[in-house]
Structure formats: C-alpha cells, structure tokens
Amino acid sequence: THNLSPCRFYLHPEMSKDLVGTHPPGAHSLVAVSVGYFLEDFVDMLCNQKLHQSWELLFHHSVVIICFGIAVLLHQYVGFALVALLVEINSIFLHLRQILLMANLVHTACYRLNSLLNLGTYVVFRIATLAWMSRWLFLNRRNVPPATYAVGTVGMAIMTPMNVVLFYRLLRSDFFK
C-alpha cells in the first residue's frame, strides 16, 4: 500500500507544498512504471483494435506518456504526476464496467452497484482531481518554466473535456437510457 498515491501525501505531507521538486523514495519509479504501462497499453490498442474504436484512448495515453515522461526524465513534477495517478483509481470501476458489459451482466445488481461506484469515483478522482490540478497549474504559473507550463496547460485542456464527455456518456448510458 506504500505505493498508492493518497498514502504518499499522508506519509509525505511536504509534497502538498512542493509538487515540483519534492517526492518520496519510490515515487519516481511509480511514475516511470506508469509510463511503461501506458506505453504497453498504447501499443496493444494500436495492434489489436480498430482506430475508430480506440482513437480517444490512444490520444489520452499519448498525453499521459508525454506529461509523465517529462516528470520521469527531469526528476521534477513527480508529485504532480502522483496527483494525476489518483484519476486511475476510477479506472478500476471503468474496467469492471467493461467486463460486466462483455459478460452481458448489464441487468444485474453487480452492474448497478458498479455504476454507482463508477460515477462516485469518477466525480471524486477524475473531475475533482483534474479541477484541482488545473487550479494548481494556474496558481503556480510563475514558478513553472514556460515550456513545462505549456505542456501542462495543453494536457489539462485536453484531459478535462475528454473526461467531461466520458462522464456525460456514462450518465447517459447507465442512468438515462
């Protein structure tokens, strides 16, 4: 459990003051492994899915790979990348939703419970986290080099609308059929 992002902030409160240069031991490795995961998933989608089915996720992965890659290469913004990894907590429920759909278990209590957990974690770990990250970036714009600020701003400008659209699709599909 020491590698989970929320624990890192509890165990290393100094990160809440400095997301640029401060990170605990192992955090850099966690972000580097995450880059590896996103690269592997990107290549897997490229090889095994039709482009029209996966272009949004490929685009998402590209943004994450670039942003996390900068953190890994520069050994900076690792704390910021850890905050971004909070978004992935919701991925558990998104993936479980896909599995339940593929198993044709849409009309079950398990699917309904997952839908509620998916929506709740989506708001907390995706929408709120992305809003917090955008706010942090804006408030710290004078402390972030222009090129890095540009990458971060473009990344947030891409990720936030993508996640709002996905939230709308989830609501429409699971709650407003």
Folded structure, characterized:
It is a multi-pass membrane protein. InterPro entries: TLC-dom (IPR006634), TLCD (IPR050846). Its main location: membrane. The chain has 7 helices and no strands. By secondary structure, the protein is an all-alpha fold. It has one domain.
Determine the mean pLDDT.
90
Give the domain tally: 1
Give helix and strand order, one letter per element, not per position: HHHHHHH
What helical percentage do the residues reach? over 70%
Rounded to an integer, what's the Rg over CA atoms?
17 Å
- Shape by Cα distribution: globular
Q: Which stretches of 5+ consecutive residues score pLDDT under 50?
A: none
List key phrases describing it:
177 residues, mainly alpha, single chain, globular, 77% helix
